[in-house]
Amino acid sequence: MSCDFSLKHYQKILLTALESGYRFSQYEKVPATDAYACVLRHDIDYTPERSVDFAEIERKLDIKAYYFFLVSSEIYNIRNSQIYKIIHMLKKMGHYVGLHFDLSWNPDVEWKNVARQCNEEKKIFEILTGIRPCNVISFHNPHKFTDLVINKSIAGMTHTYEQRYFSDIKYLSDSQGWYEGCMCKVFQAKRHRKIQLLTHPYIWSSEPKTDFIADMAQMVQDKTKNLADYLVKYHPVCAKNEAKLRKMTAFKMHL
176 lies in which domain range? Predict the structure, then answer.
């Protein structure tokens, strides 16, 4: 099997981890364990719908993962009925659902107010979804405060970039490709005793394209189609001119 970003290979990565003796654990438990352990984290940046594919794979392997959703997203809305159902589905499966905390939406935010803003967004998350987010939060974009976040503890917050989760154990992410080689090889070699593994579901798909940009272009096309579907369903003018709308959006998104 090739080491690609397919869902099939994602399952292979998890199977390799289990076969190599790794156990998937919670953030608060990993620092104290002597066993081979991994915290599995998913930051939901653009494609909440793809999180279900990951969750189903993990459920079949009896693995619990963390799913962090944005409240201040320009791409999706957690009060949307589909996303709302997905979040509840993940929770019902036994996964941990939490806040993907983005500071960049507010250019005037001051460091002294970060913890308060985070707690406010956690409350908003609970109001919008009816689910209390897990205690740990994941920063989406530390913005101008990166140096105050990475490897730092913040009063009133527990986050994924604290030293105990980021440097004291091995942190690996798919965000720019695997920088230690594919995770299946990392797990197979038992290269690190404790790992925080971050994935972004928008990078993965059932049938990956030839390269990353082609995958991203496909994601943009899918989002464009979803918007066109919505307009055709709910906007009378778009419904009457569906063929024209489809043709023009397809042309603009031609690859």
Answer: 7-203
